[in-house]
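Reviewer 2 asked us to include a model.

Predict the structure of this chain.
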Amino acid sequence: MTSQKLAYAFGISAVLMWSTVATAFKLALAVVTPAQLVLLASLFSIIVLLLCLLKQGRLSLVWQCARTRPWYLLSLGAINPFLYYLVLFQAYDLLPAQQAQPLNYTWAITLSLLAVPFLGQRLRRQDLLAMALGYMGVLIIATRGDVFSMQFDSVPGVVLALLSTLLWAGYWILNTRNQQDPIASLLVAFVMSLPMTFIYCWWSDGLPPFELKAWAGAAYVGVFEMGLAFVCWVMALKHTSNTSSISNLIFISPFLSLLFINKILGESIEPATYVGLVAIISGLLVQQWRGKTGAANQAT
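Predicted model (structure tokens):
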């Protein structure tokens, strides 16, 4: 298999995994709280990342990363997985999956906003148009198409979904300073975040129940959303000779996700969801038209 074909194989694998996670989130949240899901999924993700590095013979990089910049990686871990997934799962707990999933996709638009004060970048006309399209799509989805009524299924849910985009964009801006191995540094960040996740979970909701459904759902989220999908995406970007062709694969994911939401969760996908999602994706495509933000090549 050529390097570019290998890149496509890794990229498509990541996209397929991301396409299922909105459904997995809702199924898991039916039996555990958001905090409990973060804790269990983090544990499974740590195991997966550890096995990946072990298989690649790069386990020694973990100690190197931890020793070189411990406080920096602790900061990354505090955002991802702790704060980001705690907020994201709470949004999914309050909203239908067909609303929470597209809203979370506006993180790349949020990234362009944060890049102005933190990375010294300028807003282009494309960025302004992308924001207008993206947030109009958010409004269409959140109000089920009745934009002028401003009636939302859950105002806190919408706020939390948009807050998750702020956290995720902030994470990637902070991550631009990371020159270490991405998988090893992610593992260290996850391990460092585990105590704070454990304490918060124990204090707020109590520890997760020892039930098969709870652990199976968390295992799926941890293995695929937090673990293997990230590894596959990193490998896709590593092997590709055309980053744009790989990064554009991500636009397949939200539409596939709606299919799974409909068929597995039984949610009837409303026309407004498709209209709003097309507006969001159009905004993202406009944003990529010229001079991509490097961090936007990374995953959700």
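The longest helix spans residues 212-239. Residues 291-300 have pLDDT under 50 and may be disordered. We have added this to the supplementary material.
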